[in-house]
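Listing 4. Sequential folding, example run.
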Amino acid sequence: MAEAEKKDNQKMATVKEMMDALRKPFAANEVEWRVQKSGISSGNRPWAMVLCYVTNRAIQNRLDEVFGMANWRNEYVRWGENSALCGISARIDGEWITKWDGAGDTNIEATKGGLSDSMKRAAVQWGIGRYLYNLTENFAQCSLEQQRGDEWRTATTPDKRTIYWKIPTLPAWALPAVSTTTPPIPAKPEPPKPAAPPKPATPQDRATILLNYMGSLGVTREEIEQTIGRPVEQFDEANTKLIRSAAALMNSKNLAFQAAIQEITR
């Protein structure tokens, strides 16, 4: 009996080590950023809200590293007319375990983009890149003037104007731990920042961005103001942080707005 319990404990420890290895943060060059929402405020200031994803190549490398090339596989099936499901399977203790998730076709290379996104979502089911959901506030530094450098990207606003946005810097907790055996490679000096501020400067600008984003999640101004008890234009930093945290929970846990607020404040 003691021997069987010892084997079970060893198996649990092995599985935990695998899960910990899958959840490890990725290097900055193994993730990509996409614009979720963008626009130009009433003060003619560009803004862009961006999301961070692990690249498919990094996902494949992580699965090779943890399970071995012969011990994992992926498969795809169509889901409705414009969506795809991806299943990532891993062989653990001789048993194949599969986790599924899906995504809709994208605007660029629709089918290929949908398959790629569905694999990213399935990887999250295994814990790969799940920590990126904790990046709750990702307003990129933006400019209307053309910018040069590998860290700058372009986006087209709903009114067909081009803006330039800079890839955000990941916080330390979202990067692999720096080895203590060798000195870290010095970071490249930052280029001069454009004159435009990275965030809206006026309460009206901040309110517009917040309302636009929450509106995309189906939350009205009235719901937000009723929750906080004041007009959006009068929100302080704590009020804004509460609403953005609720939005992050709505995205990561598929919660309704009030349910997300209750989970944060309970």
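-- end of first protein; second protein begins --
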Amino acid sequence: MRPAVLALGASLVASTAHADIETSWRVAGWSGDRTSQAEEGPVANAEAWIRAGAPSSDGAGLRFEAWVAADPVGKEADADIREASITVTPGPLRLTAGRQVHAWGRSDRINPTDVIGARDLRRLTEDDADNRLGAAGASIQLDLAGGVASLHWLPEFRANQLPITLPAPEIRHRPGNTEGQFALRYERYGQALDWSISYADLADRTPWLDLGRAADHPQIILRHPRLRMLGGDLATTLGPYGVRAEAALYDYDRSDLTGLAPRRPRFALVLGADRDLPGQLNLNVQAVVRANDTLLAPIGPKAATALRNAAIQYAWRDTVAGATVRLRKPFAAERGSVEATVAAYAGGGTYAQFRLAYALRDGLRASLFAERFAGRSDSLFGRLEDNSLIAVGLRAGF
């Protein structure tokens, strides 16, 4: 699939003589990386991004986005084509083929329905959107009953990259039948009540860790069982409050997870509201509830790996509850903003983040970023304590 994406990307770049082309140049210094290593040193990273869109008179459109970085995860140089797609509009349909970035859900950064897109959570970026990975496929969209109905075929599999270092060498078990991955969605927006309902049948983007052996040495096998998700979201305004809700039901084949974890995710719900306060402040509050089915708990050598899976999958209890609070203040003349976020899960630890972005002049922005993880050593955030860091950066362009 990757050669096809590269070929399409090259053809899109070659056809952008009349395209709207944007570039972004970014440099940043980080106090550490996001691989949960205790003794990593400072990391410097420089990135170049390009984004192009080329609509044409015959109703077709092209989109391309890629980046190259000197040290995006604190290990080595890398590059990625995030988007390389073409869209045509025969009659009432919109057909898109190529690599696309998929982002589902209306709740604030915690999205139970967002299962078809993958992320590289090791990426040294202060913008969550920048760690998304594109995936090649095709989609059909149709305006229907005041909304948009879409069908997505998702043959390229790209996994979430976890912000951890595993205790043994790893090997990824590639899921079978990736050509059978698909998703459906109906969405209404631009009205007093925006909402959507969605369904996906695909390999879980988040890996489940399994303990094996190779040459008589321990080995971590990253497995991606089949996942079926039915979910929906909504957003509206009630007086001075913006209100959001998002929920999803998950279904795995029980046999795929036997021996991997003490529980499997079954349901997730996020309820949130935000309100503007005096002084141009905005307060955003969310509650999170996750329900899990009990499995036969692994014993022996696999027990420790099972506990890691429980933390990764938010399944360390039958019911997991948490909350997030974010306070944000924009600067005058749209020169940027400053925000602080705290999050906590019962039994999962706490998380705090500070983010400041300020435009020094048009097209040039400075940033300051910090995040802190804390909790028991076996908890969700406690396992990420070594990922606590501070970063300063400078960005030109988008």
